[in-house]
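Morning F.,

Quick status update on the modeling queue. The single chain you submitted on Monday has been processed. Sequence for confirmation:
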Amino acid sequence: MEAHDRSARRAKLTLAGLAAAGLAVGGVAAYPLFGNNHSGQPHAGSSTTVKPLSGSASEESGDAMTPEKGKKVPLSVPTGQKDGVSTGFPHNYVGAISAAVYFWEEYAFLDDQKARQQLMAVVTPDATGYVDEQISEVRKMREGANLPPSGGTPAGITFTTTVNAVRARTLTSSELPRGDVIHIWMNYDRYATTPEESTDDDPLKGEDIDFIVKWQGGAWKLTNETSYWKQRTFPVAYFPESPYAWRDMWWQVRHED
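Structure tokens below.
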């Protein structure tokens, strides 16, 4: 978990600066589970599966093909909002990706009370202890920034998270049909602004985090159940211009304009 520790230390240092100076924040990681080697080269043991998006640019794949040249994943538009998270994503592959992307872009990673409300709305009851684990990480980050363990985002600070690309794999399940459990890696940037600073001169760039979602009760739910967790795979570093990233099935996300 060395990469996790690096991200945690980076978050604490930056937030500590924020608490002391009230300035714009860039390097705030929300404790991604695993880091990236940022080399553009494949990790040992990387796996591949059949590309699930029909009508893709798979026919053009090759050494010259890259995520920035490939077809982008169009996000499904949510049909509702509940407890601070978007809801109503369709029961399909793109719907699963969309649910994960919207959750991460909306997640109150520095507000333990709001984060708990969001997690309770999207985490499956089968994921024992998962909500408490995530809230514990939020509170550790707050303490590292010399903030009270519980509370909201410091006044006047606004964070914006943007997912750049996703890598998704269907997992096997003994209980659910194929396609109902999906492991999704996301590469994202995070920006912060204050009333004094409308732009972030040092944003967090190119961080990775992964989630497992399963279709349950008519919605996509986050889970960490052991039977799925042990099927996780780890990606090649994402770079827009990397043919390795393309072959490992990193797809750029197309946000609505």
